[in-house]
Structures are given as C-alpha cells and as structure tokens.
Amino acid sequence: MIRKLAMVTLALMLAAVPVWAEEVSGKIQKVDSADRSIVLEDGTQLWLAESVSVSADQLKEGATVKASYEEKDGKKVVTKIEVSP
For 21-84, which CATH class? Predict the structure, then answer.
C-alpha cells in the first residue's frame, strides 16, 4: 500500500512540473495566416497560440521576431512574440 501511494505521489509531482518556454529569434521567411504559423529564415516553424495577438501589418516577411514558445504535440507554439520591422 505504501509503495502504491509513493508511486501515485511521484506521478502527481511529475505532472505538476511546469513547462519551460524556449526562445528563438530571426527574420520571417513565410507567413501562413490561415494556419497561424510563420517560418523563420533558418527553417524554424512556429505556430501562434490563440492567446497571442499581433497585427497582420506587423507579422510580415522580412520582419524580425523574438518569440517565446512551448513544445505542444510536436509543434513550437508561440506564447509571446515581439516584432521589429
């Protein structure tokens, strides 16, 4: 019984570990507004989370971005983005 309880406790602790955001920066090579994704010049593809709002005027090819993202289902999902012309 104690062993089962320890295993359940460990599983709950691991599930509560926060996901750390990664950062990436570069120039936008391609924008797919229908898919809410961008591709940087180095080939990195990023998907914008629904909670991320940025104007279409800012998010264009050639603009420089700095983005924080989390891996979700094999995709790099942007949680924060800064755009420079």
Answer: mainly beta
